[in-house]
Amino acid sequence: MFGLEDWGLIGLFLGNILAATVVPFSSDALYIAVLAATKMTWPCFFVATAGNWIGSLISFGMGWLGKLEWLEKWFKVKHETLEKQKRFVNKYGVWLALVAWVPVVGDVFAIALGFYKARPVPTALLLLVGKAGRFLVWTAIVGLF
Q1: What's the pTM value of the predicted model, to 2 decimals?
Q2: Residue 22 belongs to domain spanning
């Protein structure tokens, strides 16, 4: 976890921002480590949620700034694939933000919501709800409620 667990709440915050972007990193493992070490249930919950939410907003923003031509030219993504993804995002809309906490695909959902210009305010709110729900579940599993 890059030693971030040793930084306490600051490391938890920074790690959760990174983990919610395209950086391959486990926010769950970091959260559990800091929560178990500090036993500071609510501060850990709020800090992890805020960091992970901000990271998702960064991913959403990165998607918003993206251009179709870039994906086709630099990443060799076929136009048909992008159209299929667009139909998927249009079908589920901002509700995809609720599952942006899922490891690996969640970051892709946040970027896709931005790329396909999902409504920012509802997306941000649902990202927050999903992230908070994730850390509530981990807190219950670790048994610090």
Answers
A1: 0.89
A2: 4-142
